[in-house]
Structures are given as structure tokens and as C-alpha cells.
Amino acid sequence: MRRLRRSYDVDVHEGRLPISRRGLLSGLRDAEGLICFPFDSVDAAALDAAPRLRVISTYSVGFDHIDVERAKERGIVVGYTPEVLTEATADISVALMLDLMRRVSEGDRLIRGGGWRSVFGAVDYVGTDLRGKTLGILGLGRIGEAVARRAAAFGMNITYHNRHRLPARTERGLGARYVGFGRLLSGSDVISVHVPYRGATHHLFDSGAFARMKRTAYLINTSRGRVVCEPDLVRALQTGVIAGAGLDVFESEPVRRSNPLVRLPNVVLAPHIGSSTAETRSEMADLALRNLDLGLRGKRPVHSV
Ligand code: DGY
């Protein structure tokens, strides 16, 4: 904010909830640049309400909240923040995996609720080893690769599915084996999702997909909530179609207490904190600002969509 204010007249939306639709449209009326977040819907109507807009700089790697095609038609540059958040997001994916499979949060809830009443028996609170299990990565891009490197250190076997198979050298370097989507579903002990949200990935994980997964399998999602059909996931978790889920993203955020996921014991929930480390968020801020500056000076942002 200090850096922004040194160079620009800044209109800031304050508060703990996203700006209202009306607020966004009226705020965009005179704006030449916009810094936004993944929960701000910068769709065609918003862009049309911004006749002077030249640059959108999103403080995120995801840009599914922006109508990029419309921005392109209007000659508006879109900057985003990949790379700097790769490692932090991979850490959260693995954290969810470990937490879920070793039941850390479940144990935490048990103790805080006064439920740990006897010394542990041989089969109490048993979890699942990561070692020797097959991790299926959907979307082996930057973050997927960082997850693969971590999972290899835990002794997991790595398979992946992408729209396009990676070069053999990359596969060898990561020890990752390419499989079709069906095989990824049926052969994985854990599936970690790293695809962007778009029409083709909408509700990719629905009841049909869960039915093809192992009953002992876990789903980890740190990409976008709408890649998973949440009501179908809830049913799959309640009826033992799959064993558990670790989620950092949801169909609707923030998650309310009325969301049935909140009451399921076999789920670990995080409040969309994939990139949330002090170091990463500061790098993202720096990058978002540089993207904005460059765009407003008529140059190409460091990372543009
Ligand atoms: C992103 O960057 O897209 C994340 O969802 C928020 O950090």
C-alpha cells in the first residue's frame, strides 16, 4: 500500500468480505488499473463498466475470476503471480495429506473435546503410511511438480494425468508415470488436484469420479473448489465411497458452519491458505505491483496471462 500510494491515487476496498458487486462496478468507473483477488469477479460486465481500465493485476496465480477473453478484446493487460507461490502451495497440499492420513487434526479435536480418556491401544487412532502409496497428481505443472518432489521424499509412487504428456526427461527426473484420467482415479491411494478452474474442469470430481476411486483413497484439493462437486463429495465421504479429503478450496468461500463438510470427521479443512506464508504473500504483493506498474507504463508485465 505504501508503494502503491507513492505512485497512484488509490481507491481501496477495506473490510473482511469481498467488495460488493455495486462497489466494484462503481469503483471501476474511473480506474486505469485494478489489483484484485480470486474472489473478485471481474467478468465482462465489470470490464464494460471500466472504460479507462488498462491493466488488471491479480494477486493470485489463478485467473478464473477474470474474463480474459473480454479483457483481450478491450486491450486490457492481465498480470498474475505464478512461480512465487509454487513451493508454499505444494507444502499445503502435503500438509493436508499428512494431516489427513495421520489424523493429526482429528486427534487435536479429540483432545480439545476431552475425548482422550485412556492410554493408547495398539489400534487406536491408526492412520495410513504415505510410504509405498500411489499419489495421482492431476495437473503436473509447477505446483504439481513441487508436490511430486515432496511426495517422492516420503517414498510415494507418483503417477500423473495432464492434457498433454510431459517429455520423458521430465517424467524421469520426477519419477512420475503418465496415466489416463480413469487410471488415475482407480489406481491412486491419494489424488492431489492442481488443475486450473475452467469449463472443462468444472465438477471434474463428481459422484461418477468418486465411484471409480478406491474406497481407501483420499482427495486433496488446493486448486479451485469448483473442480469438485461438493454435495457429491459429501455423499462419497459419508457413505465410505472414498476414505477422506483434505481441502483448502471450496465451492463457496468463506465456508459457513452450515456446510456439511464441517461435521465430517474424515475431512481436513483449511481456509484457502495455499500461498499464505509471510514470505510468499510478500513476493506476491511485490509481483502484483510490478505487473501493475509495467502494464500502466505500456510494457509487458513480469507475468501476463
Ligand atoms: C491463487 O493464487 O490463485 C490462490 O488461490 C490464492 O493465493
Keywords:
3-stranded parallel beta sheet, 305 residues, 2 domains, 7-stranded parallel beta sheet, alpha/beta, single chain, 10 strands, Rossmann fold
Would you spell out the secondary-structure blueprint of this structure?
Layout: H1 2-7, H2 21-28, E1 33-36, H3 44-48, E2 55-58, H4 68-73, E3 77-79, H5 86-102, H6 104-112, E4 134-138, H7 142-153, E5 157-161, H8 168-174, E6 176-178, H9 181-187, E7 190-193, H10 207-212, E8 218-221, H11 230-238, E9 244-247, E10 267-269, H12 278-296
Parallel strand pairs: 1-2, 2-3, 4-5, 4-7, 5-6, 7-8, 8-9, 9-10
Bound molecules: (2R)-2,3-dihydroxypropanoic acid (DGY).
(2R)-2,3-dihydroxypropanoic acid binds next to loops.
